[in-house]
Write a structure and sequence with these properties.
alpha/beta, Spore Coat Polysaccharide Biosynthesis Protein SpsA, Chain A
Length: about 300
């Protein structure tokens, strides 16, 4: 099979029939064998009924229905697990992503050898202050943090070599950072393609302002996990040792000043509390690193590595 289309949706009953017909037309014109995996992320409208009706007309449709809303990352994880195509393409169900982009994305992966191709909504049809400016800030921060030169890391329209999606685990809200997950897994041929971004035709956006806060926290998590995920002691131990040493030097100085120069009221000095706090803080950091190292060594994934080839 050429392509697996993985589409996460939440309350998109109006757009689904038009989207599926559009996809079917594009695939027929380009003679591409495909499957469409629709993941209903706990919709409260008639989205699942529409999926069941469409599956009777289009046999390439496969459906997964969540009992409640788990989020886009969970939907993509299940969709990736079910995908069987040589190239996997993700897109949103709200008709803002154009299926006409699919053939070119497929060629970039299949013929040009890209591991991952991310769409770039160069001309966005979203509100400037609500989405455009925050999106630019988000992407700038992500580029600086992880060194990936992508203009639109969070674009829903992406194409993957099937090896990529079988090698990464998307969880929490990490769907925003799939290119980073792929890079950390050793897939370095990552490109982008300018894609058409269409104005929303039906309904409203399902994402609120909290996505920017969650996105920033996930960025910190990825930065830490990529560098210290398998060796947390290198992070906590270093900081703890530095803090403990600084506090120890301060307390030695105060002790020397008291017993040699006969200075008094040491416990009333701010420096005394700073030294004491630094020693306690350093000890806690070191203990945190030790416990994290113990947990890491006990993990079933401690020696799981991505092997590309064997002879």
């Amino acid at each position: 099979m050429d392509i697996s289309l993985v589409i996460s949706l939440y309350n998109e009953e109006e757009s689904l029939p038009e989207l599926i017909e559009w996809i079917a037309q594009v695939m027929k014109e380009n003679k591409l064998s495909h499957e469409i995996i629709l993941i209903d992320d706990g919709s409260t409208d008639n989205s699942w009924d529409i999926i069941e009706q469409l599956s009777e007309i289009h046999t390439e449709i496969k459906g997964i229905k969540f009992r409640r809303n788990y989020g886009k990352s969970a939907a993509l994880f299940c969709g990736f697990d079910a995908a069987k195509g040589e190239v996997v393409i993700t897109m949103d169900a709200d008709l803002q992503d154009s299926p006409d982009e699919i053939p070119e994305l497929y060629k970039m992966v299949k013929e040009n050898g890209y591991d991952l191709v991310s769409g770039w909504k160069k001309k966005r049809k979203d509100p400037i202050f609500a989405k455009n400016i925050p999106s630019k800030l988000f992407n700038w921060t992500a580029r600086k943090a992880h060194g990936l030169k992508l203009h639109d890391m969070n674009c829903g329209l992406k194409a993957f070599n099937t090896n990529v999606i079988k090698s990464i685990e998307v969880y929490g809200d990490m769907h925003r950072y799939i290119p980073v997950l792929a890079k950390n897994a050793g897939f370095t041929k990552i490109g982008e393609k300018v894609v058409e971004h269409r104005a929303r035709k039906y309904g409203v956006s399902k994402f609120g302002i909290e996505r920017f806060i969650n996105g920033f926290l996930d960025l910190l998590t990825l930065a830490f996990m990529s560098r210290f995920g398998k060796r947390p002691m290198h992070f906590f131990g270093l900081m703890g040792t530095f803090s403990f040493f600084a506090g120890f030097v301060i307390l030695i100085y105060l002790s020397f000043a008291k017993f040699v120069y006969m200075q008094y009221k040491m416990t009333e000095r701010p420096l005394f509390y700073l030294g004491l706090l630094a020693v306690i803080f350093g000890s806690q950091l070191f203990l945190t690193g030790f416990l994290a190292e113990m947990i890491s060594r006990s993990s079933t994934e401690r020696n799981q590595y991505e092997v590309e080839k064997k002879i």
